[in-house]
Design brief:
This protein is mainly alpha-helical. Helices cover about 45% and strands about 10% of the residues. Helix 2 packs across helix 4 and helix 3 packs across helix 4.
Length: about 230
């Protein structure tokens, strides 16, 4: 199957002006605290953004009001992507707010910034990742091992470790991804219980509903987790 190359639209004058005003209002304001010598992926960026939101109520409200513009500024700070490049490719950044009873899982999509431009990936910034969304791309060997067994997890079964494996399997196994989207609670729970040796991890104790969202080429979801 041929892979279509994502076209890069021109920002409207109004959107360009809004971006410039928004960026100027936050000039020199560091959001996620990345050091110049650090190399980040989208997971790193999401974790720091999560921490910032839970520690700063004013920023949280600003992010909920303007997630796409904040996302553009955060992508520049964390991944080296200019805000205008981000906005040309990403049409929407949607915030999903979890509760103790409802869990969200987002299946990421490569937004093909690495292929479509309009500028090349930053030097040393995103090796092996899409330079627009920051997603780590599957390796050739992983793609060849779609039928590999998903055994029990080693070490402490944290949510991040479990969901990293869930998302990677969904990226490599189309049938599994279809089940995850169509029957999220059953598929997610069965995968996790098998992975954790027959037990549910602590973070699932109160979960009654699981919703799965799949990103598109122009859409990003951010899961805002319950502070508790």
């Amino acid at each position: 199957m041929a892979i279509s190359i994502l076209s890069i639209p021109k920002l409207s004058d109004q959107e360009t002006d809004e971006l410039m005003r928004f960026a100027e209002s936050r000039a020199l304001m560091n959001i996620v605290g990345k050091s110049p010598d650090e190399r980040w992926t989208r997971d790193d960026l999401d974790l720091r953004l999560q921490q910032k939101i839970h520690s700063d109520e004013n920023f949280k409200q600003e992010f909920l009001a303007q997630p796409r513009f904040i996302g553009a500024l955060v992508a520049e700070e964390g991944l080296g992507i200019t805000p205008s490049d981000f906005l040309r490719v990403i049409d929407s950044v949607r915030v999903l707010q979890e509760t103790p009873e409802c869990l969200y899982l987002v299946i990421p999509s490569c937004h093909r910034g690495c292929q479509a431009g309009p500028t090349p990936p930053p030097d040393g910034g995103c090796s092996g990742c899409c330079h627009v969304c920051g997603m780590t791309l599957p390796t050739a060997s992983e793609t060849l091992n779609i039928g590999a067994q998903w055994g029990t997890i080693s070490g402490v079964p944290t949510r991040k470790k479990i969901e990293d494996l869930l998302k990677r399997r969904a990226a490599l196994d189309h049938g599994f991804k279809e089940l995850l989207v169509s029957r999220p609670f059953e598929t997610y729970t069965n995968f996790v219980v098998k992975l954790c040796g027959g037990l549910k991890p602590d973070y699932m104790t109160t979960i009654q509903e699981i919703r799965v969202f799949e990103e598109g080429e122009r859409d990003i979801y951010f899961v805002l987790r319950d502070a508790a």
